[in-house]
Amino acid sequence: MDALSRLVRLSLARERKGAFFSAFGVAMGVGALVFFLGLGLGVGRVIREKIFPTDARLVDVVPSAVSLGSLLGGGKLDAATVERLAALPGVEATYRKMNVRVPAVTRYDGVFFGARLRMGMEVLAVGVEPGLVKDDVKLGEFKDPSEGQPIPALVSTRLLELYNKTFAPARKLPQLSANMIVGFGFPVEFNRSYVAATTGGPTGAAQTQVVGASDRAMLAGITIPLETAVRINRQAGVDAETFTGVTLVASDPSRVPAIVDAVKGMGLEIDDQERRMAENTGAAVALVTSALALLSILICILAAVNIAHALSASVRARAKEIGVMQAVGASRADVRGIVLAEAAVVGLFGGAAGTALALLMAFGVNRLAVSQLPNFPFKPDSFFSFPWPVVVGGVLLGLVAALAGAYFPARRAAATDPARTLAG
Amino acid sequence: MIRARDIVKEYVDGDGTKVRVLDGMSLDVQDGDFVAVVGPSGSGKSTLLHLLGGLDVHYQGEVEVGGVKLRGLDDKALARFRNTHVGFVFQSFHLIPNLSALENVLLPSHFGASREDARKRAEAMLERVGLGAKKDRAPVRLSGGERQRVAIARALFTGPKLLLCDEPTGNLDAATGDGVIQLFKELHREGLTVLAVTHEDRMSAAARRVLRLKEGRLVEERADLHLATRGAP
User: Where does the ABC transporter domain start and stop, copy by copy (chain B) (predicted)?
Assistant: First the structure.
């Protein structure tokens, strides 16, 4: 094997210019593919995990916008309907939600994490059952507080990100982490608005305390305990019986489609706006990634064609050598193996070099992004993701491209007629 | 050692004409014989050599070498036959330029010959042909005679019983050619069967038997008869 590998090595050394360009072509194709795949996977991960975090087991049920309602026994999300939803096959748990159906405002005038802040704004609020957000509550219990105690509130992690990357820099306010805001209190007046008419009922002033940040919290507002929302609505004399939505937890993601069908059969709708946005954005990223990957694969195919040309020329030039090998005992399979081994070395080298180049470029792009790009919302630490199958696959693709290119030259070499080439 | 019967070999030339190079030829060579095959160009000498050595299997008739019938052997078996039963020596030496003399001799070991002590055996073989001191030289740094000796060492590496030589002195000057012929004589005396295709009187003079091929047939066979006339075809 030593001398045979030396034969391969020497042959490559003799044809080093051609071998280098062959490997270079493979490296370009593989490098581009690994780079774009890494970029697509990285951006996709940001979309999935940061911008539109979705849980495959959750189904958000909302009342139908257009419904025949009680005529068909559907459309309204009351306690009875929730019970029916809970009884659907594959539903492991249900979490009810109710919007605070009166307007609310906050007026803040004080020190906000070391900076003076004076502002007033409209506040939206939704009440959810504690089980839905229990993992995100970092302070106290998520329940309707007793008299004089602050209302526990969760804010959206995405809202926090938007605040940090846009609002805070514009207003010269401090940037905040999820842990920093826990315990922060601010006043809220329910049934009061700067812009809309109120129900005319009594105004309720309350203190609100942030108890955590959650992906499941309302994006543009605060998320409070369900009982609190029910109480506020009841005190304001608005609907405190029907729910704004119900989140169903499927026992397994595979059960979701059947649950969705059953829910729709009940005259209710699925609020899959976020999921669809995630899917659409993900699909757009996948499409662009696929197009770039296709381009990269085309480069690999061109590299394979180049290898085919180079090896064909090499095989023609070495016909006598091949004849000699056959004369001393090389079978057609041996000859084929030698040519394929040469291609394999080129492919592995090209694949490894291309993959390394892609990783290096990704590192460089990330460094540039950190230093040069503005700090926009959801800006990731890395725009790339290189799971090991992508890295190993890159190297293997180089090998496969080279072997594919070497297929016909290897066959031609194996078909060398030693009697003819050695004559004379 | 060699038994060939009713060999017919045809090929189609550039004009599309079918040419019969061997036309029902038969041949017997005993173990330990030294045979020179002479004849004019195109008489089928090299073709005969290729058939006997298993380099060409497209013919009619039957060839048996060392008890092995070549027809019907698959490519792998044929390759093994070439590796173990015969050694080839060519007019143009056909050494692989990238490899040293020693690596050229070792070449058959990569294709089935025993790898045990291969390097030692290859070195011994180079010593045997007087090139032990030049084992690491590339072919380009060897003289024509030395290259042919390396080729002979390579042919002998696997210990074949039959040496097939195609104009082995054709590219050598007289003195160098004599040295190579002397080597063949020694190998013959040691029991090796040698069959050489040649135009050279000196080579055929060294042989015990001379076979003359003309128009694809064995038209003359003489034992222990040296061609007397220099320049004879």
Answer: 2-232
CA B215 to chain CA centroid, nearest Å: 21
Q: Are strands A151-156 and A91-99 parallel, antiparallel or unpaired?
A: unpaired
Q: Domain spans of chain A?
A: 2-52+278-421, 64-267
Q: Give the separation between CA A190 and CA A124, rounded to whole angstroms.
A: 10
**Residue B228 resides in a domain:** no
**What digits encode the pLDDT tens for the residues A270-293?**
888 777 887 888 888 889 989 999
Check which CATH number belongs to the domain holding B23 and give it: 3.40.50.300
What sections of A147-272 are H helices per DSSP?
Answer: 157-162, 168-171, 178-181, 226-236, 256-265
In order of B57, B72, B115, the CA distances from B68 in angstroms are 13, 10, 23
pLDDT of A54 strictly over 60: yes
Chain A residues near any Cβ of chain B (below 8 Å): 1, 3-4, 6-7, 10-11, 13-14, 320-321, 323-334, 417-419, 422-424
CB A304 within 8 A of CB A405: yes
Averaged pLDDT, A238-250: 93
Q: Which string of DSSP letters, residue by residue, matches A188-223?
A: EEET--SSS---SS--EEEEEEEEEEETTS-TTSEE
Residues contacting residue B11 through CB under 8 Å, at least 6 positions apart: B18, B19, B21
Nearest CA in chain B to A10: B98
Q: Is the pLDDT of residue A190 over 80?
A: yes
Counted domains in chain B: 1
Mutation choice for A interface testing from B111, B135, B165 by most A CBs within 10 A: B111
Signed CA dihedral, B56, B62, B67, B73: sign only:
positive
Amino acid at A353: A
Q: Is residue B120 part of a domain?
A: yes
Tokens of B227: 């061609």
How sure is the predictor about A423, in pLDDT bands with cuts at 50, 70 and 90?
confident
End-to-end CA distance of chain B: 27
Residue B27 in any domain: the answer is: yes
Residue B191's domain spans which residues? 2-223
Q: How far apart are CA B154 and CA B197, in angstroms?
A: 19
How high is the ipTM of this complex?
0.90
Residue type, A226: L
Closest among A321, A340, A323 to A409, alpha carbons compared:
A340
From residue A208, alpha-carbon distances to A11, A21, A196, B205 in Å are: 78, 68, 22, 118
Which amino acid does the sequence have at A134? K
The residue of chain B with its CA nearest to that of A423 is B46
Smallest CA-to-CA distance from A29 within A263, A243, A300 is with: A300
CB atoms within 10 A of CB B43: 22
- A113-117, A189-193, A410-414, B56-60 — most confident range: A410-414
